[in-house]
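Escalated from tier 1: MRU holo job.
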Amino acid sequence: MSFNSKIKTIEWVDNVSRMIDQTILPKEFKLVDIKTCEEMYDAIKTMIVRGAPAIGIAGAHGVALAAIEAKKSVQTRKDFDKILKEKGEYLKSSRPTAVNLMWAVDKQLELLSEDCSIDEITQKLIDNAIVMENEDIEINKRMGDFGAEIVPKGATILTHCNAGALATVGYGTALGVVRSAYAKDPTIKVFADETRPRQQGASKKMIDVVITGADRIAANGDAANKIGTYTVAISAKYHNVPFYIAAPLSTIDRTIKSGKEIKIEERNREEVTHINGDWICSEKVNIINPGFDVTPNELIAGIITEKGILRPPFEESIKKAFEE
Ligand code: MRU
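Tier 2 regenerated the structure:
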């Protein structure tokens, strides 16, 4: 299985953010150009771009787009910085759970501390967005290499939700690990859970290891990922199957102590009540439609990151990973 690095999920091209429109896959493959910060907000919110690492890069591109717009309308760095900070907060409010979005926007905004002209800072924000975009693929490949070590020979892996190339700039998080493991051992097999209605991402002693992605990981290792992950983790524990998370350090939110503090996105009720625009249940039914759940750290055997595999107790291993 080779990786076709020519196709990126999201890419900065000629001062626009070009991305695969994931709302029409798999029927249609179309690239869309996002030209403004407002368009980027909508692209994240409506899931044209989705998956925690990909959303992060979308946020970084969004700040660069905001800079290009602001440059046309303001005269001073003070006014420029004010607009950029407001647009950054606006972008961060497009979706609540995947912390990569907040991480990437903040990483861009940190550049505002540099004392330079509006033209120079705009160029720096564009350059940094491109660096972050390319680093995402490198980070995934490093995670893949570390993660391949925990996949036994000939193993059958279970994964849950979309954690492949499309959820990142390229290569993938959990599926990146599968990709790297497969390169060493083509006899491995994968079962991929999917969620409905968004097709994100079915056992009798068939699974050797579970690997999923994550959208936000607390300082104690509790991990939010697509709804249903917690159920998979409990079943894995019951059957003595190791459960791993594959996620870059940008998915770890050290400002929160535990998963209790993770804000879970509540999605539209129509995603449950309708299929292709048709009602599929009584109009009176009450709906709750959380997009994610939180797997407690005691169910997690390890967190595969670009710095290696973090093991329990996660408070310590996470802290150490950021210090190295
Ligand atoms: O489609 P989304 O953005 O709602 O899905 C988020 C995800 O992609 C996942 O939860 C995924 O498993 C972690 S990010 C690779």
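The longest strand covers residues 16-20.
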